[in-house]
């Protein structure tokens, strides 16, 4: 099946009891057994839930993984990846331009837990691989990054870091007491692109992480997260942690996310079309010092976006002349673009990263990465693009 067909049909078999085209939401906490241990494969909904299983099957099919685990939030998914696959004393290499909540989790939780963190501020695969040594067990990447929309060449970075791991004596295959104890894993946060535009497992990654709150759910009405693993041994480790730690997504959340995914292919197409038009319009406005969008020829990695992605995405970042005052005035005047956290919904949002999503990153660090006071992030929705441009125009005026 092609992508759009999988998004609609995988994990959505008709209900065998009634023939209902849309499977029922299984809200039960527990399952009645005929006798101790005599059950139908379901015992307790933290461990097994048909609604969650359907969502997980769909996510795995879209990303091309061995399986998926669904969580109560994107950060719960990230937390499970790190806590189950890494140990104190391990090191993690990351590209520094990332979601502020991920940085906070890394620095405020896992550094104190005993994880050594190393950040690259260069997208060059050799620079990232140069931070790998014999203690490194994971490389964490976002592409496009949040909020600067930089791209990482996933195939090149994956190859470079695995070669660096081999040079450091880390075997490519699992071994030791833990399946993942002696290997380096590449994890990619694919929230901005979604599998509709980019599939990291096909490009050498081992894990894909999503905040399903964003484009996958797509309607700003549910919080969730997911991890998709390429290999079965890694998946089993994640599944054990998912059950043992218990940060699973509830059945209603799974239902809403799965319902959103059914329209993912068509939504992402319109997000890309609208964002392209908005970005091109923004480039013509003197009030913007910089317009950042992978679909523009002015983007330094425009060619990479064309090779690696099936579309440049729905996010546009702009820097206003006049710093915070200009940015705040602009954001206070928009009518269709709601000033709010998050992104990826059908409605357009406008965000100030330095104050909102990236406030937990030290000012010096975020400004070095480009997250200045005049930076504004636009999540371009699927409204009529002429209305969106008119709204931005009056806000600038």
Q: What is the tally of helical segments?
A: 14
Range of helix content: 25-40%
Summed up, the domain count is 2
Strand content: 5-15%
Distance from first to last alpha carbon: 48 Å
Average residue-wise pLDDT: 96
User: Would you state the CATH class of the largest domain?
Assistant: Alpha Beta
Major beta sheet summary:
7 strands, mixed
Radius of gyration: 21 Å
Q: What would CATH call the homologous superfamily of the largest domain? A: Type I PLP-dependent aspartate aminotransferase-like (Major domain)
Structural class: alpha/beta
What series of H and E elements makes up the topology? HHEHEHEHEHEHEEHHHEHEHEEHEH
- Tertiary shape: globular
Task: Note down, in words, how this protein is organized.
The chain is of the alpha/beta class and 397 residues long. It has 2 domains: 3-261, 3-Layer(aba) Sandwich (Aspartate Aminotransferase, domain 2); 266-396, Aspartate Aminotransferase, domain 1 (Alpha-Beta Complex), CATH 3.90.1150.10. 38% of the residues lie in helices and 14% in strands. It has 14 helices and 12 strands. The chain has helices spanning 3-9, 50-63, 74-85, 100-113, 125-129, 154-167, 194-197, 232-245, 251-261, 264-283, 302-308, 323-333, 363-368, 385-396, and strands at residues 67-71, 91-95, 116-120, 136-142, 185-189, 207-210, 225-229, 288-292, 315-320, 338-339, 349-351, 375-379. Strands 1-7-6-5-4-2-3 form a 7-stranded mixed sheet, with helices on both faces. The chain has a 5-stranded mixed sheet with strand order 8-9-12-11-10. Strand 5 (185-189), helix 7 and strand 6 (207-210) form a beta-alpha-beta unit. Helix 3 (74-85) crosses helix 8 and helix 12 (323-333) packs across helix 14 (385-396). It is globular and about 75 Å long. The mean pLDDT is 96.
């Amino acid at each position: 099946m092609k992508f759009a067909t999988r998004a609609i049909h995988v994990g959505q078999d008709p209900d065998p009891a009634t023939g209902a085209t849309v499977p029922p939401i299984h809200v039960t906490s527990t399952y009645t057994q005929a006798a101790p241990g005599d059950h139908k494969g379901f015992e307790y909904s933290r461990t097994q839930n048909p609604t969650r299983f359907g969502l997980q099957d769909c996510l795995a099919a879209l990303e091309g993984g061995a399986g998926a685990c669904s969580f109560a939030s994107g950060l719960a998914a990230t937390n499970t990846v790190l806590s189950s696959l890494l140990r104190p004393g391990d090191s993690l290499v990351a590209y520094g331009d990332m979601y502020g909540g991920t940085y906070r989790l890394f620095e405020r939780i896992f550094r104190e837990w005993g994880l050594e963190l190393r950040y690259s501020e260069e997208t060059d695969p050799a620079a990232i691989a140069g931070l790998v040594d014999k203690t490194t067990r994971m490389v964490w990447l976002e592409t496009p990054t949040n909020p600067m929309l930089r791209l990482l060449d996933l195939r090149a970075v994956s190859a470079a870091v695995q070669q660096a791991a081999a040079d450091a004596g880390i075997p490519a295959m699992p071994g030791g007491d833990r399946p993942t104890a002696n290997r380096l894993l590449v994890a990619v946060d694919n929230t901005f692109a979604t599998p509709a535009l980019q599939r990291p497992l096909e490009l050498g990654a081992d894990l894909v992480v999503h905040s399903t709150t964003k484009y996958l759910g797509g309607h700003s009405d549910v919080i969730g997260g997911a991890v998709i693993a390429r290999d079965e041994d890694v998946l089993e480790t994640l599944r054990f942690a998912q059950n043992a730690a218990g940060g699973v997504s509830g059945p209603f959340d799974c239902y809403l996310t799965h319902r959103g995914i059914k329209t993912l292919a068509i939504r992402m197409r319109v997000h890309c079309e609208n964002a392209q038009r908005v970005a091109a319009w923004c480039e013509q406005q003197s009030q913007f010092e910089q317009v950042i969008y992978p679909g523009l020829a002015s983007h330094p990695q425009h060619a990479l976006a064309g090779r690696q992605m099936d579309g440049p995405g729905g996010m546009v970042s702009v820097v206003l002349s006049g710093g915070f005052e200009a940015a705040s005035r602009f954001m206070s005047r928009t009518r269709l673009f709601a000033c709010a956290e998050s992104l990826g919904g059908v409605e357009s949002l406008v965000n100030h990263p330095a104050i909102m999503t990236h406030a937990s990153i030290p000012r010096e660090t975020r400004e070095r990465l480009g997250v200045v006071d005049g930076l504004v992030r636009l999540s371009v929705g699927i409204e009529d693009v002429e209305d969106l441009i008119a709204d931005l125009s009056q806000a600038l005026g």
